[in-house]
Amino acid sequence: MAEPEPTAQDKGRGLRRRKFLTFLVAAPTLTVAGRFGFDALTEASALPSPPALEDIADLGDAIRLASMPTTHLMVLEVTEDTTIRFELPRLEVGQGISTAIAMMVAEELDARIDDVNVELSDSRPELHFNQITAASTGVRILWDPVRRMAADARARLINAAANQWGLSAEELTTQDSTVRAPDGRTLSYGELAVAAREESSTGSKLKDAAEYTTIGTPVSRTDARDIVTGKALYAMDLPIEGALPTVVARPPTINGTVESVDDTKAKSMPGVVAVTTIPSGVAVSAETFYEALQARDALEITWGAGPIDGMSDADIRAKLKSTSQPLAAPKLRGSHLDATFDFAFVNHAPMEVESAAASVPGDGTAEVWMPSQTAIWAQGVIAGELGLNRDDVTVHVTRAGGSFGRRLFADVGIEAARVSQAIGRPVKLMRTRQDDMKHGRMRPAYHQKIRASYAAGEVLSFEHRVTGVTLDFDHGLGEALTSTLAQVAEGGAGQYYFTSSQSMPYHVGAVSQTLQEVQLGIPTSSFRSVYSGTVRAAEEVVMDELAEKMGKDPVEFRRKVVKTSSGKAVLTKAAEAAGWGKDMPAGHAQGVGYHAEYRSHAACVVDIDATDPANPRVTKAVLAVDVGRVVNPKGLEAQIMGSTMDGIATVLRAGIHIDNGAVRENSYGDYLWTKHADAPVTCEVHIIPATWNPGGAGELALPAAAGAVANAYARATGTRPRSFPINH
Amino acid sequence: MPKKHKFSVNGKRVEVDADANMPLLWVLRDKLGVTGPKYGCGVGVCRTCTSHLDGEEIQPCVVPVGECKNKEVTTIEGLANGDDMHPVQQAWIDADVGQCGFCQPGQIMAAVSLLQRKAKPTDADIDAIENMCRCGTYPRLRAAIKEVAGMPMDPPGNGKPPQGPPEDTPPNDRGQGGSGQRPGGQQGKPADGTSTDGEQSGDKESGGLFDGIGSAFGG
Predict the structure, then answer these.
(1) Percentage helix, strand, coil for chain A under 3-state DSSP, each rounded to 5
(2) A430 touches chain B (CB under 8 A)
(3) Model pTM?
(4) A289 touches chain B (CB under 8 A)
């Protein structure tokens, strides 16, 4: 049989390995979305709250349904050297999706995990909604289709071996990337790859969970060795021939404009190749980043005003406050609790600054290398900016040095492509850290009002009015259709995202959660946990204060009103493991928080040392989680720890200031994210075993941890935190 | 004014034409193709680029190349001895420390420096490490350091002295072993005005731009 020609895409990536078995499996059976519905109330005194939209079909369910029709277009290959290659239409940002997928493939294929090679797919518009990395949906959505693909591959390899040996498929077994006959003969998957192309997947069957040998076991990241040896390559590390280091002089205020440029001096400086004015600033391309930065500083630019010039934090806060709708629930004397919260802007600040390489050679095509959570959408918007056909633009997805929601947009990809198009040379464009702080997208600032009424030891109503700077959802679900819908939707796409992600996990009577947004022209992007990072944190603070008003223990109160048995279980486990209620010295305290989303549950108990209220430290964090079936406990633990650190940072110290239309912070020196000295010395993650399909986990712990930290601080200091970060 | 600077990188003698004020980070990345040290802030606060100069921890983003004369620079690429991981690298793998991985070369170089100064660091010593990790891997970073505490800390690359010419690999190609991964020497060879002793950049097998890149993407 003739060897198949490499695809154009393979040629572009320099992949010339011979490949034989490529699976384009049939669309998987539509499966009903995970758990919903509620456990029966176990406590008679809780006033039931009706389900919200999120309880019935959340954002992850929507993305899963949207991605269903194209899951069969994903690519799994077995090559003659027994390399099993899966093209992952997602971004690896550190969340461990590559490792989890490799484990699923290895499990259902009975392959050695070292033989499984998960690569990040280039942008593939034909995948439509199935190339977005968001909403903690990676494992949740790919769990079924990836396992089915691998099971089909295994069946075809077995059938090929059965033919070759003249045995029946039922007699054969598979292990360690080989098919085995009862008499001890073996054939490697590589040896069978050619023949298996012609085989059907008759007999394909998913394993019973009891048979798992890889899924559910702790597996280290498949790229761990690359990481520790410096071989893991990010966008700015790629050896793209002739790509000129490029930086951009940016305006002094957010979204300011370029009015005029004198680049005479800059152009005469060593190493400088080109100076290009683009909408966001003035780009300098040079032989090295050092020379580009030196010349950038020599540019003489007259800047125009940005949309919020003259506005500072107090103005923004006042604007949000005046826009906020009044609370509607009637005040019943002596039995209501009103609380108002403010949250500062938060910069994602991933360690890898926003960066992209681009080659726009002038022949109607473009290539862009960037870490993108929305590769298809990025491809479309870059093509639009360049005036090229979408299909003539390729976005090569590179691993990301963190994201936390920042890489949902293609801002630097667009900048790099514009500069490359203008100068006719490939470029690698990097934001400096200061650029990233001062002009990077942020989690919006919020003003939130809560009124809870209660009587006779039970909560009767819980009203939450959320008002924030508009959160930009122009990326939609990562492709054109939903992007367009997001931009034209009445009231903004935020309303849909809000209602499909927010619900109250407790029975607290009549519940109302609403969102209002104020468009100020400030660049924003979803931040890990999106709305829940502030909304649920505020609610957890109120839950503690309600418990206090009603003379109840915060853990016992939550256990009594939490809607699900999973919620009760994680609260119980976290409290037990943390020694809830233990004696602590003055200035020290424990705090609890709980969150349910993505069909998962997390409870967090922290110990805080706030003897110096201006410099508190979380000394210990204990988490208990139920995320359904766990693919990789090691990866899950890492995500829970990481999102806990984000909860600590955003509640205690990390916030952005806006002064006269500009971000005050410059770098990690004045943007005080958690460092070693701020991190808990002990961080325990307890996983409650569960057998239902995996839920989401990457963002899960942030709201629970944020609530726990705020509550611990309140108990340790005797204060009622209302403005976050507390030490801003 | 550009001038020639002679020093060693990961055991290889190099000579670089550059402004004496050019930070070592950009000399490594843009002139020598040594991309293990990452840019994170450019002002020495995030410490993502942490490497060693004559065995002392430095942040190459704030060390001018002019201060490196005749000194030995060790980056993450020079830590292992061939395929044999340095004990700190092995501890990182065992504890599965990395998430996005971007800061980990710097974290490892900082931990090696700490452990060379103090074989059994206390929690307070670990707290004093200022390297940022935005993924929040701190609990595992702490566990990995404690795991390797007290073990003999061989110098990077097992202490092999800098080697003179002839050389047959560029400084970033040490310890490649059989991984098949060729790190990003810019354009496969140093930029103009730069030479590694013995020249030759390991691009003779040529291939496409992205040969072997899959393994760096988590495969």
Answers:
(1) 35, 25, 40
(2) yes
(3) 0.89
(4) yes
- Report d(CA A697, CA A517) in Å as an integer: 27
Cα–Cα distance for residue pair A702/A686, rounded to 1 Å: 16
Q: Would the CA dihedral through A447, A451, A457, A459 be positive or negative?
A: negative
pLDDT score, position A482: 79
Q: Which residues pair with A546 in a beta bridge?
A: none
Contacts of B42 in chain A (CB under 8 A): 432-433
- pLDDT tens digits for A22-59? 544 333 322 222 222 233 333 445 788 878 878 877 88
For the segment A89-133, what is each residue's pLDDT rounded down to a tens digit?
Answer: 999 999 999 999 999 999 999 999 999 999 999 999 988 888 999
Angle of CA points A414, A419, A420, to nearest 5°: 100
Q: Does A84 touch chain B (CB under 8 A)?
A: no
Q: Which fold has domain A314-347+441-724?
A: Aldehyde Oxidoreductase; domain 4 (3.30.365)
Q: How far apart are CA A491 and CA A721, in angstroms?
A: 31
Q: What is the dihedral of CA A376, A380, A385, A390, to 10 degrees?
A: 120
Of B76, B100, B130, the CB nearest to A93: B100
Q: How far is B66 from chain A (nearest CA, A)?
A: 14
d(CA A536, CA A706): 9
0.85 surpassed by complex ipTM: yes
User: Are A506 and A558 in contact, with CB atoms under 8 Å apart?
Assistant: yes
C-beta of residue A82 within 8 angstroms of C-beta of residue A189: yes
Residue B18 to residue A178: CA distance in whole angstroms: 55
Distance from CA of A467 to the nearest CA of B (A): 28
Candidates A231, A425, A615, A666, partner chain B, best to mutate (most B CBs within 10 A): A231
Question: Could you give the 3-state DSSP secondary structure of residue A692?
Answer: coil
The answer, for A96 touching chain B at a CB cutoff of 8 Å, is: yes
DSSP state of A517: E
What are the residue boundaries of the structural domains of chain A, listed by start? Answer: 17-229, 235-307+354-430, 314-347+441-724
How far is A18 from A178, CA to CA, in rounded Å? 19
> Would you call A677 and B93 a contact, using CB atoms and an 8 Å cutoff?
no
Residues A581 and A715: beta-carbon distance below 8 Å = no
d(CA A544, CA A719): 12
Q: How far is CA B144 from the centre of its chain?
A: 19
**CATH fold for domain A235-307+354-430:** Aldehyde Oxidoreductase; domain 4 (3.30.365)
**Same fold yes or no, A17-229 and A235-307+354-430:** yes
Q: Which CATH number does the domain A17-229 belong to among 2.60.130.10, 2.60.40.1220, 3.30.365.10, 3.30.450.70?
A: 3.30.365.10
Residue A326: count other Cβ atoms within 10 Å of its Cβ.
7
With CA atoms as reference, the chain A residue closest to B207 would be A14
Residue of B nearest to A15 (CA): B211
Contact indicator for A398, A370 with CB cutoff of 8 Å: yes
Go through the domains of chain B in sequence order and give each one's CATH number: 1-78 (3.10.20.30), 87-151 (1.10.150.120)
Using an 8 Å CB-CB cutoff, list chain B residues near A682.
Answer: 139
